[in-house]
Amino acid sequence: MNFSPTDWQRSIYAKGFAGIRPATKIDFPKLEALAGAHINQQAFAYIAGGAGNESTVRANREAFEKCKIVPRMLCDVGVCDTQVDLFGQKLPSPFLLAPVGVLKMANPEADVAVARAAAACGVPYIFSNQASYPMEACAEVMGDSPRWFQLYWSKSNELVASFIHRAEQCGCSAIAVTLDTPLLGWRPRDLDLAYLPFLEGKGIAQYTSDPVFQKMMDEPDQLSVANSGVNIKTIRGLISIINNYPGKGFLKKLKSGRPISAVRKFVSTYTNPRTTWGDLKFLRAQTKLPIVLKGILHPDDARRALDAGMDGIYVSNHGGRQVDGSISSFEALPPIVDAVGGKVPVILDSGVRGGADAFKALALGAKAVCIGRPYVYGLAIAGQQGVSEVISNFMTEFELTMALAGCKNIGEITAEMVTKI
User: Fold this and answer.
1) Are the C-beta atoms of residues 172 and 148 closer than 8 Å to each other?
2) By residue range, what is the domain housing residue 157?
3) Active site includes 318?
4) Active-site residue among 38, 165, 298, 318?
């Protein structure tokens, strides 16, 4: 995509003159509110919610707000270069799309619509481990556009290896291993609704499409499920489980028992709270792709990642969804950058709501930033078009911020361009 921020901004105004406004909203609170009006209460709670009283969600924004940009004047910014090099790939901007699961709750085309939008904008898409469509379906619509794969470490190393090898076959150029979810966080919005989408067979397409997982489904498990009786809600849940399982023929799938077995096996195996630093040796032996550890918030953990031969650090608190009262990702960034010392790239997400946030993150040493909830809200509002609009808005604001701050390329975005946090 030959992206021009001035052309994008000009097109918004030109269309507005003709009475055509963007499908999405540029202001984040308005974007979030509009998305909430397009999806049901359960879906919005799952996407928007955070852990506990959501203090970490707020802290992510407060940290960005405390840091201020210090623009410089009379700099030649007639031509700006926003390209970054990440693991040998030249990217048009410092943005990636963070992995977000169960996107079918936002839009029926889910991950596939996101994949198309990411490819059109030239932005890498990190396929979610908890996707609504298999990674192969997303890779098919992306052509040669860059993509990564997010990995949750399950209780089965054979399944972990299978996911990695499938990601390699799908042309993924890196593996982002999510470390901060050995257990599901305490999420009041979901708990108040007593709703977990995985129990309806949603968000487990990477599993049901995997040959190792299919074999695992034939094995007994120790999962104990409370018997809540049969009512209209449980019947609807059963229908959802069957419809979300791959294959044709509702009755055929029902009789096979495979859809229910898939949900039970997923719930009992999808994360492994006993994973330790020593297990990274297994991961390293599985692939030559760059391995990025996602969820790092302490500089000592960043150092341990380097010692383990990891290729990148992904600073994240899971968008505030795991630990209430956690340090913000942006606050954690500078000491981690210092600890890494330029040996591997540092990526950041959680709380990124616009191009100015990306500028601040790069000034403090991040190589790239990931967009999360905003693109999901775009997906909820207008599908692929909505995702493309959100990406384009981020890219435009970033380049305009960079130019207006007096920087003509990424290399000029240094710590002197922002105040200390």
Assistant:
1) yes
2) 24-186+272-417
3) yes
4) 318
